[in-house]
Amino acid sequence: MRTEAESNAVRLARLTSARIVLVPVVMALVLWPDGGQALQIWAAAVFALAALTDFLDGYLARRWNATTRLGTFLDTTADKLLVTGVLCALVWVHRASPWIALIIIGREVLILGLRGVVAADGTVVRPSIWGKLKFNVQFVAILLAILRLGPQLGPWYLDQYAMLVAAIVTVLSGVEYVVRYSGSFAEPPARS
Fold first, then answer.
1. For the segment 86-108, what is each residue's pLDDT rounded down to a tens digit?
2. Is residue 188 included in any domain, yes or no?
3. Which of 19, 123, 164, 179 registers the highest number of CB atoms within 10 A of its CB?
């Protein structure tokens, strides 16, 4: 018989797993050849649902006080899979700049590595306001890129401006994490 805390942890893991399962669905909808406006709307809706599970997952984990190492790992992994997977699909259909995608994905890889180095010391990398802002700005930019609304505004579409803002916030977020945990890169003094 499971305790209430164990049951809550299982529920949260299922919610996070649902986000992971939705990643290839969104990618397939974005990549569908000649899918038209209807598939773009479906792709945007499924992407929004997947992103909503991130909000719900975090809210419930705090409410139930059910934060676990596995849950934190799965949540972080699901976020990175969602953003990188959908960005790659958007690059393929020429809705996102490869350079901006490289910046965003590069930051995600950098932070994964940083988490590994910091975890070796037993330190947990806590999310910052920059990390949360980054996810929200990326969400808006990706959603707009999936939908590609309206005519161009000057040289770009609205989603391209949003994607540039997302790249800037992503870089600032990465710098904040590196500065905050830069002490973890120092080698311990040699023993004599």
1. 999 999 999 999 999 999 999 99
2. no
3. 19
